[in-house]
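re: ur msg from earlier - yeah i can do the FE2/S2 (inorganic) cluster complex, just paste it... oh wait u already did. ok heres what im feeding in:
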Amino acid sequence: MTVFAEHSGRVHVGAADALPDGSQTEVLVDGVHVVVVRYEGEFYALRNNCTHKDFPLLGGDVSMGRITCAKHGAKFELATGKAKTLPAVKAVKIYKTLVEDGEVYVLEL
Ligand code: FES
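and the outut:
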């Protein structure tokens, strides 16, 4: 008999109270590294790879609703993943987030 593990379709990030504004957390979603950013009270999740030269976005400066790649300075819009400044031109993949009972999740696609 084969037993299949239940697939919840979401990855737990942590308690919302433990993730203050400005925090960045990395989680694995279907084997993909994703950075979860809390900005102005909202949670945003983006693939943790700059579309310019694949540098991690984790730890990049966040302001004006954008995260900046620390390598060459490309900025990506948190809400859409769109590249807003060169040298990046392609959007970074985004994921949906969910807060339920005070816990934060990234939804798997
Ligand atoms: S690797 Fe991110 S801007 Fe170049």
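cool cool. Residues 21-107 form a domain with the Rieske Iron-sulfur Protein fold (CATH 2.102.10.10). ping me if u need the other ligands too
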